[in-house]
Structures are given as C-alpha cells and as structure tokens.
C-alpha cells in the first residue's frame, strides 16, 4: 500500500473523527504509542551494530482512560531494544501497586480493590494479582515490626487493643502496641504484637523481643493495669512504672452506686492533684488513705487505696517535672493511637487472619510515625525529665 500524504489539517480531521467514537480516545492512544515505539526501534536499529534487525512484536497491556490499552512492543533479533515507553508503563504499574497498598491498608478487601482499580485504570486485576501486591505489603510491614530499635527511650507506653480475627473461627484477639517517646520528645510506634488473650507470658515475650531488637534502657513505662505487665517489666528493665490514673478512677466508679459517684469523683480528684506543683508521694498516700477509710465499709475493694505498694504505681508521675506530668499520668496517647487503628479496621466486621491485622496496624503506625509523631510534644530535654 502506498504511503498516504496528508497535510496537518487532514490529519486533525481524521483524529477528530476517531476521538468522537466510543472508546476512540483509547484507540488513538494505542495507535500513537505503537507508532512511537515502532519509530524508536527503527532509529535504534539504524544506529545499532550490523546483524541486528526487527523481530516482530509482543503484546502488553497499558493503562488507558477507563479501559486498558492493547500495546505492541517492538522486538529486535538480539533482544537488546527496550522502548523508553516501557519505563513509563513501569511507573504506572508502581503507582498501581502503591494504590493497592494504600487501599488495603485502609481496610478494603481484595474485591473492593479490584473494583476500584478497574474503574480508575480500566485494568481488571485478578484476585491473585491483588494477593501478590498485598503479600508484598505484608512483607514490608513485617520488616517494619522487626526493625532495629534505639537502645534508649525516655518513656514507653504499652497497651492492648482487641480485634475480631479469624483462626478456626472468629473471636476477639489481643494486639499489643508499644509507643515510645524519643529523647527529642517526638514519638514512634516501636512494637506491634499479637496474642489470642492477654497473659503474663505474652508480656514477657514482648519485653524479650524489644531487648532483642536493641532496646536497653527506658526511664518510664506507662500502662493500664494489664495482667502481670509490671512484673514482666521489672524482670527485664530497671525502669519506673506509671499505671494509668484515669483507668483506676473509671474502675472504681464502675463499681459505685450512682448516688455516691459525684462525691467519690471529688475525693479521687483530691488524691491526684495534677495542678499541685509541690505535691509528693507521701502526701498522695495520706490523701488516698483518708479516702479509703471514708469509703471502704461501703466498698471493701477501696481498701487498696490505703496500700502504699499498690498506690506507688499510680504516683510515679510525681517523680517527673511538673510540665510533663499531664503526658504521663494516663495512657491517653496510646488510646488515641488505638482509635486510629479502629477507624481503619471498622470497615470490616472481622479480619481474615492475624497477619492481615498486623499488616494494617503497621501501615497506620508508619503513616502516623511520618506525620503526627515527627513533631515534638514538649520542649523539655532528656536532662529535665526527672526532678
């Protein structure tokens, strides 16, 4: 067939007629990209060593507008020719992988991801393709959880959150979170672990893992009254422990009659005087003993408030500078982190596996580490943490 000689105006008319047809724009993109790659091969072969020549085409798919493109990649006999457009398509593929990572990390299922990628890119990803992408994400998140830690953190928060997870059947399982404050007063999630239920053995394993990954010294651990946590910490670290004051108050008030709660709230506020710069452990113990004597006949469990050993775990914040006591007398920070986890997980009634939960929690942690947690929470330096 003779080569057509069309002027620019005729070519423009032909393009306009093509693009108004259904899927015409994608057809035009296919023709243009195929022609560019063919021309690039011709230029390459002209400059290449003798003996090399064109050797047909291979079919690949590219991203179009609402549909995939059928592209023909030119080949040469020696297999040396690589069109520049392949790099562009690789970038598109990397972008698609990143999108799948983010969608999966937001809690979407593989079926949701298939639907979204098809609607945006016109690329129908199979479940196996999405599974390979999410497996790659799982590997990256596992590396995050196993990374080497600094040897020293001034403050470490510990807590457990529960997620419905499928093993043989669906049940709520404990996921343990470790949040650290760095010497520059920024924060970082340094540990995410799973165990079916809270137990002393689990906390022991977590402490061992933190040490294995490099942690040697912590000035203060902050936690709720979690099962056997204090003994596990004391076994592995020479550190102070602060148990959450708000959790203690809530625990007491849950077991109190409604008509007594207002008065007891005031008495508990008297024990924990966060606004009293000059407060001491001894003064706190005396106020707690007074409250215990006042209430224990009605509520025998409140006899524990008169026990200095019990109360010592709730008064540790008094050893620290007044300016940071509000940061350490509760587990509020890590509870806020758990709420961020829950927002990601609430899309699903339950998770298909432990690994899927760990992956999603890890992705949320990485995002928060690189955003909110990179900003210091206090101007105090490490040298001013203790009185």
How would you describe the overall organization of this protein?
With 387 residues, this protein is of the alpha/beta class. The chain has three domains: 1-82, no CATH class; 92-145; 150-384, no CATH class. 49% of the residues lie in helices and 17% in strands. The strands form two sheets. A five-stranded mixed β-sheet has the order 5-4-3-6-7, with helices on both faces. Strands 1-2 form a two-stranded antiparallel sheet. α5 (127-145) crosses α14. The longest helix has 24 residues, at 24-47. The chain is elongated, with a radius of gyration of 31 Å. This is Mutator family transposase. GO terms for molecular function: DNA binding; transposase activity.
> What class do helices, strands and sheet pairing give?
alpha/beta
N-end to C-end Cα span? 92 Å
Mean pLDDT: 83
Radius of gyration from CA coordinates: 31 Å
- Please indicate the count of domains: 3
Strands ordered across the widest β-sheet? 5-4-3-6-7
Order of helices and strands: HHEEHHHEEEHEHEHHHHHHH
Strand content: 15-25%
Total E-strand runs: 7
- What profile does the largest beta sheet have? 5 strands, mixed
Count of DSSP-assigned helices:
14
Helix content: 40-55%
The stretches of 5 or more residues where confidence is low (pLDDT under 50) are none
GO molecular function: DNA binding; transposase activity
Family: Belongs to the transposase mutator family.
Protein name: Mutator family transposase
GO biological process, one term: DNA transposition
């Amino acid at each position: 067939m003779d080569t057509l000689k069309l002027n620019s105006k005729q070519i423009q008319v032909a393009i306009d007629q093509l693009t108004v047809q259904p899927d015409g724009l994608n057809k035009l993109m296919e023709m243009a990209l195929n022609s560019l790659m063919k021309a690039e091969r011709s230029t390459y072969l002209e400059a290449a060593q003798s003996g090399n020549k064109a050797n047909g085409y291979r079919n690949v798919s590219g991203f179009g507008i609402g549909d995939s493109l059928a592209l023909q990649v030119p080949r040469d006999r020696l297999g040396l020719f690589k069109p520049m457009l392949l790099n562009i398509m690789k970038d598109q593929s990397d972008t698609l992988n990143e999108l799948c990572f983010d969608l999966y990390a937001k809690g979407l299922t593989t079926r949701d991801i298939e639907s979204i990628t098809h609607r945006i890119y016109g690329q129908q990803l199979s479940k196996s393709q999405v599974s390979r992408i999410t497996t790659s994400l799982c590997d990256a998140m596992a590396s995050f959880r196993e990374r080497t830690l600094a040897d020293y953190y001034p403050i470490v928060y510990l807590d457990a959150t529960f997620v419905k997870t499928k093993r043989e059947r669906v049940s709520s399982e404990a996921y343990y979170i470790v949040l650290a404050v760095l010497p520059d007063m920024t924060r970082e999630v340094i540990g995410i672990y799973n165990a079916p239920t809270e137990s002393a053995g689990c906390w022991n394993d977590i402490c061992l893992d933190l040490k294995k990954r490099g942690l040697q010294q912590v000035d203060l651990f902050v936690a709720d009254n979690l099962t056997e946590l204090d003994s596990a910490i004391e076994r592995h670290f020479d550190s102070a422990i602060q148990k959450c004051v708000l959790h203690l108050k809530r625990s007491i008030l849950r077991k109190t009659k409604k008509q007594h709660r207002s008065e007891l709230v005031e008495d508990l506020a008297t024990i924990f005087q966060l606004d009293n710069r000059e407060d001491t452990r001894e003064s706190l113990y005396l106020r707690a003993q007074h409250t215990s004597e006042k209430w224990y006949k009605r509520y025998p469990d409140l006899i524990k408030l008169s026990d200095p050993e019990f109360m010592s775990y709730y008064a540790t914040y008094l050893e620290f500078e007044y300016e940071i006591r509000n940061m350490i007398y509760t587990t509020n920070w890590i509870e806020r982190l758990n709420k961020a986890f829950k927002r990601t997980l609430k899309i699903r009634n339950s998770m298909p596996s432990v690994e899927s939960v760990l992956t999603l929690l890890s992705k949320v942690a990485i995002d928060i580490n690189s955003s909110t947690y990179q900003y210091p929470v206090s101007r105090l330096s490490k040298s001013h943490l203790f009185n």
